[in-house]
Specification:
The protein is an all-beta fold. Helix content is 0%, strand content 35%. This is Rieske (2Fe-2S) protein.
Length: 132
């Protein structure tokens, strides 16, 4: 089974084409899509206290703010739609205009964005999370 590229929060701005940061290059495939259109990511790639961005046709943010609690959001910045990137811990940042979001709640921490990231459904399926 193929997994969508994931950018892991590790202290640097992560992009799906940045192999030096440990993420997998985007190849345009949708092999990580779950039946029904959801994206899949291994639970092990979403450490406690961190957020990751799942790249793909519809990018998502998945976070584990506390042990065993997973949340997900649309990764499109609510300011102008650029895909946010995962920073240290639960911090998400928009590369376009610097808006900052809390990856555990989706809340805006710094503008120009005024609205929180839209929540997305997430469920655990064995050792994978299904988002969307």
């Amino acid at each position: 089974m193929a997994i969508l590229p994931v950018a892991v929060a590790c202290g640097t701005t992560s992009k799906s084409d940045d192999t030096a940061s440990g993420s997998t290059p985007a190849d345009g495939s949708s092999g990580g899509s779950a039946p029904g259109g959801g994206a899949r990511v291994p639970v092990a790639q979403v450490p406690v206290g961190s957020a990751v961005v799942i790249a793909g046709p519809k990018p998502y943010v998945v976070a584990q703010p506390t042990d065993g609690t997973f949340v997900a959001f649309d990764a499109a910045c609510t300011h102008q739609g650029a895909t946010v990137s995962a920073q240290d811990g639960l911090t998400l940042e928009c590369p376009a205009h610097g808006s900052r979001f809390n990856g555990g709640t989706g809340a805006v921490e710094k503008g120009p964005a005024k609205a929180a990231l839209a929540s997305a459904p997430v469920r655990r399926d064995g050792e994978e999370l299904v988002v969307g």
